């Protein structure tokens, strides 16, 4: 029986990890993808920190994870935010209940129609 040193174990593990990375993963079917809605948010101090605070304050960590908000585009006083469709009402309620100057101007299913 051969004894393998710690270095050889690490090298073997690294080699198997690189093989896994090289294999191409199958893409998800459209029916299994997470459906998103895009929100145009305007207001003073419209940035990631303030938006995260508003959402976390109202729906908490579990609701935040369920909504999976992500910033698509950020300009001076406006942000485009992508959220899960199932959590859209909770997100809207969190912005309505907050005392910060952030307003949802428009909600859309595509980024193209959000810009119009």
Structural overview:
The protein has a four-stranded antiparallel beta sheet with strand order 2-3-1-4. It has one domain: Alpha-Beta Plaits (2-Layer Sandwich), CATH 3.30.70. Helix 2 runs antiparallel to helix 3. The model has no long low-confidence stretch (mean pLDDT 86). The longest helix is centred in the middle third of the chain and has 20 residues. Helices cover 44% and strands 23% of the residues. Strand 2 and strand 3 form a beta hairpin. It is of the alpha+beta class and 116 residues long.
Mean pLDDT: 86
Order of helices and strands: HEHEEHEH
Q: Assign the CATH architecture.
A: 2-Layer Sandwich
- Number of discrete domains: 1
Structural class: alpha+beta
The CATH class is identified as Alpha Beta
CATH topology: Alpha-Beta Plaits
Strand coverage percent: 15-25%
Biggest pleated-sheet summary: 4 strands, antiparallel
Helix count equals 4
Radius of gyration of CA atoms, rounded to a whole number = 21 Å
How are the strands of the largest sheet arranged?
A: 2-3-1-4
Distance between the termini: 70 Å
**Number of E-type strands:** 4
The stretches of 5 or more residues where confidence is low (pLDDT under 50) are none
